[in-house]
Amino acid sequence: MNQKFLNLTLSASFVAIMAVSGTVLKIPLPPPLPSLSMQFFFSTLAGIILGSKLGAIAMIVYLLLGLAGFPIFTTGGGIGYIFYPSFGYILGFIGSAFISGYFREFIEKNHRIILVKWLFVGNLLSLIFVYICGVSYIYLIKNFYTGSNISIIVAIQVGMLSFIPSDLLWCIFSAIIGKKILCLKSSLKIR
After folding, report:
1. CATH number of the domain residue 43 falls in
2. Which of the residues 28, 62, 109, 141 has the least number of beta carbons within 10 Å of its own beta carbon?
3. CA nearest 164: which of 74, 45, 48, 36?
């Protein structure tokens, strides 16, 4: 199979999966909490499968399509979405895919054997990045755009603490599934 065609197909698939996981596969939570979705899981899986660059590019395409007006974010789309407190997480997904992918590439290059535990560590690092982006954005939007004047502690409580258990599970599942898909790619001699 042509590698460029495969990369294009996989990248487009992750853009579509992100859209579906943000609009259909979400669990609404009471305000001020954002919806619970599988988007973090798919951003890390995109990095593991596609690599750092293609994974990040797939997340950028997802972001641009949403900002262009396609209702693929958890509560819609359009350029005005940059004023939503949850927009920081979407920005974080770009870094999430890059970090997970970079970590997988580093392990592959230096150790030759990719273990689930190391993919999990890469996913944890990407989760930290997503939390930094998401919580910072909540804090900034609430304080400087909506005028809600919340503390950083409240931003952390709303944007991170309630999601840690599910996000840790996503880190584990992404590492396990990513390893299985990488093994499948390797057995099919697809690089």
Report:
1. 1.10.1760.20
2. 109
3. 36
